[in-house]
Amino acid sequence: MENKAVFFDRDGTLNVDIHYLHRPEDFIWIPGAKEAIRHVNDRGYLAILVTNQSGVARGYYPESDVQHVYDWMNSELQKVGAHLDALYYCPHHPEGTVPAYTKACSCRKPATGLIDAACARFHIDRAKSYFVGDSDGDMLCAKNAGLKGLRYEGGSLLDLVQKI
């Protein structure tokens, strides 16, 4: 059986983009973001976070910070009866300063490596799935991955996601 999913970008879509967010205390939810995730949960979609995290490659924070923020997000979401099913992130950047992460890769959006990995793991039907993001790169990733793209441009994220 194939699953359906909503892939969410993080910075600028679920939280206010402050550039290189890596601490829960700096996280500010976008209006309606928690409710949007609950909406997709309640309708039988997997809610999957896909995010570029070039701050790892640039040496601004370790990968463990990305996981820590994700875990914190899920603890906050649980308070409203919501959850994210998985985290996929790209720690690479061609202009990084940490050699292990300084490279071009197939997982950095708009490339589709993060989506491809999630679809393989969760048996996701791309024709029934969506990508919610705030940038041209997110929309290009959605197109390249065979997903319907929904562009967040402000206001309540729930209002946008209810169009699904």
From TrEMBL:
GO cellular component, one term: cytoplasm
Residues annotated as site: Contributes to substrate recognition: 108
Binding site for Zn(2+): 90, 92, 105, 107
Site features described as Stabilizes the phosphoryl group, chain residue numbers: 51, 109
UniProtKB keywords: Carbohydrate metabolism, Cytoplasm, Hydrolase, Magnesium, Metal-binding, Zinc
Alphabetical list of InterPro entries matching this protein: HAD-like_sf (IPR036412), HAD-SF_hydro_IIIA (IPR006549), HAD_sf (IPR023214), Heptose_bisP_phosphatase (IPR004446), Histidinol-phos (IPR006543)
Enzyme class: hydrolase
Cofactor: Mg(2+); Zn(2+)
Annotated protein name in UniProt: D,D-heptose 1,7-bisphosphate phosphatase
Species, as recorded: Mitsuokella multacida DSM 20544
